[in-house]
Design a protein that fits this description.
Elements: E1 12-16, H1 19-30, E2 39-43, E3 54-56, H2 60-68, H3 72-78, E4 82-84, E5 86-90, E6 100-104, H4 110-125, H5 139-145, E7 163-167, H6 168-181, E8 185-187, E9 191-196, E10 202-207, E11 212-214, E12 217-220, H7 227-232, E13 237-239, E14 248-254, E15 265-269, E16 273-280, E17 283-290, H8 297-308, E18 318-321, E19 325-327, E20 331-332, E21 335-337, E22 343-344, H9 352-369, H10 374-400, H11 408-415, H12 421-431, H13 437-441, H14 451-460, H15 479-489, H16 496-501, H17 509-512
Parallel strand pairs: 1-2, 1-12, 2-8, 5-15, 12-21
Antiparallel strand pairs: 3-7, 4-7, 5-6, 9-10, 10-11, 13-19, 14-17, 14-18, 15-16, 16-17, 19-22, 20-21
Helix pairs in contact: 1-6, 1-9, 9-10
C-alpha cells in the first residue's frame, strides 16, 4: 500500500457489529492509504448473536485474502475451511438429461472449451440435436466431483477460479484477531441507541452503562437488525419478496464421511425450497431455505431430516428467519450499511461476502478520493443498486426456469411474472433463439453475473425448444477432444482431503505439491 500524505476526509469511523462483515470492513479500512491517521473502531457486543455455521463464498474472497497478505495456510485451518470449485444444482429441473447441472467458477481452460459450449448452445436454441449441457465442457466440474482441490501443479500453468467453504463464526474470530493486530480498536459493549444531530446525521452511539461512542462516520454491520441504516435513520426498505419467496432457514450439521472430499456446494430442490450441503474439515454443513407461506417450520424440519436421513437422530436444528431485499440507500447521511444490514439476496449463489467486499472496497475508494458529497453518495448507491438488483435477477432466474409441478411452491415460482424489465428482456432474447452474450456484455441485461453463469443456468436446466426435424445431422463441438482434454488435465490437481491436511504457504504451494502416483500422467502445457 502506498500511503498518502493527504489527510482523510473523516478522522474516525465507527463500525457497529463484528461478524464477518464488520471485521472484513475494518481490515479494508485499516489498509487504506491514510494508514493510522484514519481511526477505525468496531463496536462488537461480547454476546451478540452471530449467524455462524457453514458458509460458502465466490472467488472474490480469494482476492480479499491475497490483498490482505493472508495465506491460505494461515486462515483455512483456523476456520475449518475447504475449497469450492462451484455449485451442483440437483432437482431443480425435470427436463430429461437436465435434472442436475453444475455452475463452474471461471478458469483459464475455459478459453479452450467455452467457445464450443456457446456454439452448441446457440445451435441447440435453433433446434439442432447437439449436446448443450454445461457439465461436460468445464474443468471445474470435473475437479469438484473428483474430490480434487482447484490448485494446479507447477507444471500445469492454468489457474482455476475458486471460492471456499468455512465456519462463519471461526472466520469472524480470525478476522477480528487480524484487525486488532493492524490497529483497529475493539469496543466490546452493547449499543442501546444512536443519537442524531440537528442535521439528522448520527452523532454518537449510546452504550450500556451510560457511555457514548462518538465518530465522524458510521458503518452499519449489525445484520438483519439494521440498527443504524434502518432503525436510527429510518431508511426505506425495498423488499424482493414478490420474486423471492423464501423467508426461513433451518441449519443442521452432520459428521464428515469417508471417501472423496468434493470441492463443491450441493443445492438440492426439495418440496418448498432447497437444501444445501457443503463440506467443512470438521463435518458437513446442511440447511433448508424455504417459504414459510408454503410449509410450516415443523414440517420443513421433518422434510430436511428425511433428506439427510436423520429422522430418528438426536441432531439439533437451528431455525432462522430472513428478509430478502435492500435498503433504498446503502449510504444515507453519514452512515454506510454493509452486509446483511445493507440487504440480502437469499444464499442460493452465496453472494453475501462478495457484496461485503464490493461495498467496503467501493467506500474505501470514495474515502481515498476525499469527496464525501452528494454526488459521491449518489454514485455509490447507484452502483450498488445495479449490482444487487442484477444478482437478484440471476437468482430469480433459477426459480423462474424450474420445471417442477409437484408442489404449489414450484408452480408459483414458474408462473411468477413479477420480473424486472431486464430479466424479461434477457429471457425473451433467449426464447427467441438469439445469443444473450452481446446483451450481457453491453449491459442491456444480465448485469448480475458473467456470461458463462447465465449460459450454464439456462442451458443447465434444459431451457431449449424441441429438436427440429433434421437437426440430428448437424455437427456440434468436438466432444471427444474436450473429454480427452479434461481427462488428461485432471491429474494435475491434488486430492482435496490430502491437500487440506498440510496446506503449503501461498507463495510456495504450487512447488511443494507432489503426488508421485500421478507424476507420470501429469499434463504439461506442451502436451496440450
Amino acid at each position: 500500500m502506498q500511503y498518502s500524505p493527504t489527510e482523510p476526509p473523516v478522522k474516525h469511523i465507527a463500525i457497529v457489529g463484528g461478524g464477518t462483515a464488520g471485521w472484513m470492513t475494518a481490515l479494508l479500512l485499516s489498509a487504506s492509504k491514510f494508514g493510522a491517521r484514519l481511526k477505525v473502531t468496531v463496536l462488537d457486543a461480547p454476546k451478540a448473536a452471530i449467524v455462524g455455521g457453514g458458509e460458502g463464498s465466490t472467488p472474490w474472497l480469494r482476492g480479499f485474502f491475497d490483498s490482505m497478505g493472508i495465506a491460505e495456510a494461515e486462515w483455512m485451518p483456523a476456520c475449518d475451511a475447504t475449497y469450492k470449485s462451484g455449485i451442483t444444482f440437483d432437482g431443480w429441473s425435470t427436463r430429461p438429461g437436465h435434472e442436475s447441472w453444475f455452475h463452474p467458477f471461471p478458469s483459464m481452460l475455459d478459453n479452450l472449451t467455452m467457445p464450443q459450449f456457446l456454439r452448441n448452445v446457440h445451435a441447440r436454441l435453433n433446434g439442432a440435436d447437439v449436446h448443450a449441457h454445461p457439465d461436460r465442457f468445464f474443468m471445474s466440474q470435473r475437479v469438484a466431483v473428483a474430490g480434487r482441490a482447484p490448485l494446479p501443479a507447477h507444471e500445469f500453468p492454468f489457474d482455476l477460479g475458486y471460492g471456499y467453504h468455512f465456519d462463519a463464526t471461526l472466520l469472524a474470530a480470525f478476522l477480528r484477531a487480524k484487525a486488532l493486530q493492524r490497529g483497529v480498536v475493539h469496543v466490546a459493549r452493547h449499543m442501546n441507541s444512536a443519537t442524531l444531530d440537528e442535521r439528522g446525521d448520527i452523532r454518537a452511539l449510546e452504550l450500556d452503562g451510560g457511555d457514548s461512542l462518538a465518530a465522524d462516520f458510521f458503518v452499519d454491520c449489525s445484520g438483519l437488525a439494521s440498527l443504524l441504516i434502518g432503525q436510527a435513520l429510518k431508511t426505506p426498505y425495498v423488499s424482493f419478496s414478490d420474486v423471492l419467496f423464501n423467508d426461513a432457514v433451518i441449519a443442521m450439521p452432520t459428521p464428515d464421511h469417508d471417501g472423496p472430499l468434493m470441492s463443491q456446494t450441493v443445492s438440492t430442490g426439495l418440496k418448498h425450497g432447497w437444501a444445501w450441503r457443503l463440506p467443512l474439515t470438521s463435518g458437513n454443513s446442511n440447511g433448508y431455505v424455504y417459504s414459510s407461506a408454503h410449509v410450516s417450520a415443523d414440517a420443513a424440519e421433518t422434510e430436511l431430516r428425511a433428506h439427510l436421513g436423520l429422522l430418528d437422530a438426536d441432531v439439533p436444528a437451528r431455525h432462522l428467519k430472513m428478509r430478502v431485499g435492500r435498503h433504498a440507500k446503502h449510504w444515507n447521511r453519514n452512515c454506510v450499511a454493509i452486509g446483511l444490514s445493507q440487504g440480502f439476496i437469499e444464499p442460493l449463489e452465496v453472494t453475501t461476502l462478495m457484496f461485503v467486499q464490493r461495498a467496503a472496497a467501493s467506500f474505501v475508494d470514495v474515502l481515498e478520493r476525499g469527496d464525501l458529497g452528494e454526488a459521491a453518495q449518489a454514485a455509490f448507491n447507484g452502483g450498488l443498486d445495479a449490482r444487487v438488483d442484477g444478482e437478484r435477477d440471476y437468482v430469480v432466474a433459477h426459480y423462474k426456469s424450474n420445471s417442477r409441478t409437484d408442489t404449489d411452491y414450484w408452480r408459483a415460482n414458474a408462473a411468477n411474472d413479477a420480473l424486472s424489465e431486464s430479466l424479461q428482456l434477457l429471457l425473451r432474447t433467449w426464447f427467441a433463439s438469439q445469443p444473450i452474450a452481446p446483451g450481457i456484455e453491453n449491459g442491456s441485461f444480465g448485469t448480475g453475473c458473467d456470461t458463462l453463469s447465465w449460459y450454464c443456468l439456462l442451458a443447465g436446466v434444459g431451457l431449449f425448444p424441441e429438436v427440429r426435424q433434421g437437426g440430428a445431422n448437424e455437427a456440434g463441438a468436438d466432444l471427444a477432444g474436450i473429454d480427452d482434454l479434461i481427462r488428461r488435465s485432471t491429474p494435475n490437481f491434488p486430492d482435496h482431503r490430502a491437500w487440506l491436511r498440510d496446506i503449503p504457504p501461498h507463495a510456495e504451494r504450487v512447488n511443494l505439491w507432489r503426488q508421485p502416483a500421478d507424476a507420470g500422467r501429469r499434463v504439461t502445457l506442451g502436451a496440450l
